[in-house]
Structure prediction request, 305 residues.
Amino acid sequence: MKLTTRLSYQQAVCEALKRIAQQLDEALDLTELARAACLSPLHFHHVFRGVTGETPLEMHRRLRLERAARRLASEESSVTNIAFHAGYETHESFTRAFRQAYARSPSEFRALARQARDGCGHAPSSVLAARSEVHFGQPLPEYRQWIQGEHAMNVEIENMDGMRLATVHHVGPYNAIGQAFAKLGSLAGRAGLLTGQPTMVAIYHSDPEATPASELQSDAGCVVPAAAKIPEGLGELIVPAGRYARTTHVGPYSKLGDTWARLMGEWLPQSGLRVGSGVSYEIYRSDMQTTPSEQLRTDIYVPLE
Prediction:
């Protein structure tokens, strides 16, 4: 079972890599990539990034830039033409992205390539650093576990009870969900729902690559008793009981994405387990008002089949 499950994730990532590398002239259909992997878009996002070190869109953009760099070095097409072919709408946006990636403008890169052809200096490389070793014009490397943390992940399998949440639905950038928690704290506090040490939960529903930041959907919630009345202005969400993988992130919330990537891309493919149909969620175990950011503890839960 373990080998079969690991191979299924291996195949899913390899197939996605092939599609990305072979369809650079097409818009990347992230929903289709996730469907082919039999994962939700959000879970696929975490698995792919965890395995390769890049999100699908980041890899797609990088390979397009590597192709553009090759064209600059070997062709006389205008920079504007190459920019459009690389998926950029303007010469300026392409130049900004190219300079950020190669530390020089497209024209400077081309000039260095010409000098190298004339025997003056070394040709600039079109290859950009990537842990996956997937590059434009090169054979795809054999699958391996590209991303490894310094230490093995500590992951526990837990049978979790269901949770009834009072929630504030948030639409917008995930890093702004604090606004929803502030509203939740105000309304739930006045209703007497935050006594003792309340359990604060966040659920993220959208793939941040496939959804504009202004349209991302998430919920800020707190666990409430089954008989409690939820006040006006708050929603209700039931998280089902089930079997979950849990790992604990210690550190600032801005680094949570790295822990998600390791859990889904490093631990999960090797575990012999598969993601279930429930929702993933985060439980915040620290008071962010009194706890230094490097000591914040957040439990991450992923449902399992």
Summary: The first helix runs from residue 2 to 22.
